[in-house]
Amino acid sequence: MHGYDSTSYGDGFADVYDEWYSDVTDVDATVTRMVEVAGAGGRVLELGVGTGRLAVPMARAGLEVTGVDSSEAMLSRLAARALADDAPVATVCGDMVDELPDGPFDACLVAYNTIFNLLDDDAQRRCFRQVAARLRPGGRFVVEAIVPDEQAPAGRDVNVRSMTVDRVVLSVSDHRPDEQRTSGQFVEFTEAGGVRLRPWSIRWAAPGELDEMAANAGFRVERRDADMGGTPFDGDADHHVTVYRLGRVDAG
Fold this sequence. Notes:
This protein has 252 residues and is α/β, with parallel strands linked by helices. It folds into two domains: 8-148 and 205-246, Vaccinia Virus protein VP39 (Rossmann fold), CATH 3.40.50.150; 155-202, Single Sheet (N-terminal domain of TfIIb). Helices cover 25% and strands 35% of the residues. It contains seven helices and eleven strands. The strands form two sheets. The protein has a seven-stranded mixed beta sheet, with helices on both faces. It has a four-stranded antiparallel beta sheet with strand order 6-7-8-9. The longest helix has 13 residues, at 72-84.
């Protein structure tokens, strides 16, 4: 998508993110999972932290959380939420490859497809390597993502996301499986505000490809579930939560 960069998503969605995506990533299950992998009071790095929908509850649970996001608009909303909940979260305004803070961290989280906001294979691979460099030995990297439908046909699509008496949101998407890329716009029409464009773009990867990236960075798969709550992963799962551990994973 011409003109799209690392700040486009956050700046386009910051004001509606909590409204539109409150039901993605089970918050309570995520907090429980991160306490398990980081340990009580552990240091957690969250990539693409956004409005703090997950980071602030993790901080409330006693984890020491640092969040990275390239959007000042997202981080401004996180700061307000953290202040209101008296749950401090350290933040870094930067990208999740080349501007990560120094570690060591006990665990890192990249929730609901955020790894796919890195729009090429090289950036995703470098992200795994940069995370590995900031984890303690044996630290975990928790990746939550869709299992892409690799048989989905190429093409463009327009449909209605939502409609009320004074607001219509259209979803326009362009799916290019040969590039493992899907991009789109939410086009919002409101009686009071006119037209608002909210662009997004992802470069998706199947679990096996992510596993290979992780292995090259020194990680091994510790466990894979269909969701944060631990539903068993099988061939019908359309999402996965994979816990990668830095270094050797002992049998049993």
